Amino acid sequence: MDTTHVVKHKWFWAWQDEKEEAWLGEMDREGLHLENVSLPGRYEFHQEEPANYTYRLDYQSLRSKDKESYLQLFEDAGWEHVGNMNGWVYFRIRSDDGDTPDIYSDKKSKIGKYERIITYLVIFLPIMLILRPNGLEGAGPFVFILEGLFAILMLLYVYAILNLMRRIGQLKGENS
Amino acid sequence: MTDYSKSKFLPLTEATYYILLALVTPKHGYAVMQEAQEISVGTLRLAPGTLYGAFTTLEEGKLIKMVGQEGRRKIYQITETGSGVLLEQIRRLQIMLQSAENKRAVWQNLITQEGK
């Protein structure tokens, strides 16, 4: 493996997208340029000259026929598409110190992004309830562990939705 | 004639107002961004995420429609409904401006008094 290639692993919660954006910008200032994100939690970088980039994450579940025009619009506006991961779309743009370019120019549309994530999570909730491991025979340790895991997953779901709603509340309260 | 005054899109946001105005002639997204910035004398800078969201909502509401494609770029234009809503917004804006104009003497007096 060549030495200019660096892989990092990191978890990323849906309501911490701004933290993710800041982290990737930080990596570029240290000379690590993001190459790929396709697998959750796995980031591929290559070593380059340190540079100033602003990263922005959008959340979209686009039909493939809409994807091209969507990406083209961002590209026309100067944003480079870096990759996709679980509905997240990663963009970056060269920026100067103190400059904070954004992919959203008003609060309403920015809130729309978080509402899309919540919608996605809420749609999956009944599917998960159907898949709930309660139809299994007996109550062996396997079923017990499975039910425990399921309970944790459900709690995470609710926690994620609450955090996203808090994020929307923060945005609504902000001036500008 | 259809009554557009009860459209759920009213009042238009600054962004949708300029997007509809730009789409009086067919355009792709980036051209809308450029024209919106120009005709708003720089008071509105549209970011791509906001514009894309607006396109989706306006197309669903049938205020704009796709009229063609230029490579990977979709070309949109305002519809009859869109024009109706835009005209109603303009009518409201004119009322707003006129009402301020009618009171100009009063508030101009206030400003000069505060300035002293």
The value of Rg of chain B in angstroms is: 17 Å
Shape of chain A: globular
- Report the sheet with the most strands of chain A, covering strand number, pairing sense and barrel closure: 3 strands, antiparallel
Binned, the helix content of chain B reads 55-70%
Biggest interface between protein chains, with counts per chain?
A-B, 23 and 22 residues
Which percent range fits the helix content of chain A? 40-55%
How far apart are the termini of chain B? 53 Å
Query: Spans of chain A of 5+ residues with little confidence (pLDDT < 50)?
Result: none
- How many H/I helical runs of chain A? 4
Instruction: Give the oligomeric state of the chains in this entry, treating copies of one chain as homo and distinct chains as hetero.
Output: heterodimer
Short description:
Chain A is an alpha+beta fold and 176 residues long. In chain A, 47% of the residues lie in helices and 20% in strands.
Topology:
The complex is a heterodimer of chains A (176) and B (116).
Chain A: E1 5-9, H1 17-29, E2 32-36, E3 42-47, E4 53-59, H2 64-76, E5 80-85, E6 88-94, H3 107-130, H4 141-173
Antiparallel strand pairs in A: 1-3, 2-3, 4-6, 5-6
Helix pairs in contact in A: 3-4
Chain B: H1 14-22, E1 27-28, H2 29-39, H3 48-60, E2 64-70, E3 73-78, H4 80-102, H5 104-115
Antiparallel strand pairs in B: 1-3, 2-3
Helix pairs in contact in B: 1-2
